[in-house]
Automatic annotation (TrEMBL):
Domain (DUF2231) ranges: 13-134
Transmembrane segments: 48-72, 84-102, 108-135
Keyword Transmembrane: yes
Keywords: Membrane, Transmembrane, Transmembrane helix
Name the UniProt record assigns to this protein: DUF2231 domain-containing protein
Lineage start: Bacteria, Pseudomonadati, Pseudomonadota, Alphaproteobacteria, Sphingomonadales
Keyword Transmembrane helix: yes
């Protein structure tokens, strides 16, 4: 019989976990859309990536704020390494996503090039890493 983790061992608040799901899914979707655009040159893939990035940024903003507040609450905790790493991953994810949103706001022919795909990779990988770290069993953003 499976047991539920105690409230002290849950890594993140359930609402925090729901918010985290959006950047993980949407930044990954944007990366896949960029790859599809590079293979087909169909401009709608670039538009789809731009909308996915925007959605990820909108869900990621309160997530980043929540992680910053969680980090601040644990400022005197000697075991705050995980919270700091989680916050930095979210910060890099959101920053790369914001720059990528500006990149994708250009004409479709120039928005998805080396820089656009590289920013999509950075945002997607850091979102996935934050999701993995967020649910690794350490209490980070409560």
């Amino acid at each position: 019989m499976a047991t539920r983790p105690s409230p002290d061992r849950r890594p993140v608040h359930p609402v925090h976990g729901l918010l985290l799901a959006f950047p993980v899914a949407l930044f990954t979707t944007a990366l896949l859309s960029d790859i599809a655009y590079l293979n087909t040159a169909e401009m709608q893939w670039s538009n789809f990536a731009a909308w996915a990035i925007t959605g990820a940024l909108l869900a990621g903003a309160p997530l980043l704020l929540w992680a910053a507040l969680g980090l601040w609450r644990r400022r005197r905790d000697p075991a705050r390494r995980h919270a700091l790493a989680y916050f930095l991953l979210l910060l890099v994810m959101w920053g790369a996503g914001l720059i990528n949103a500006f990149k994708h706001s250009q004409d479709a022919w120039s928005s998805v090039g080396t820089a656009g795909v590289a920013l999509s990779i950075v945002a997607a990988v850091t979102a996935l890493a934050a999701g993995w770290l967020g649910f690794s069993g350490e209490r980070i953003a409560r």
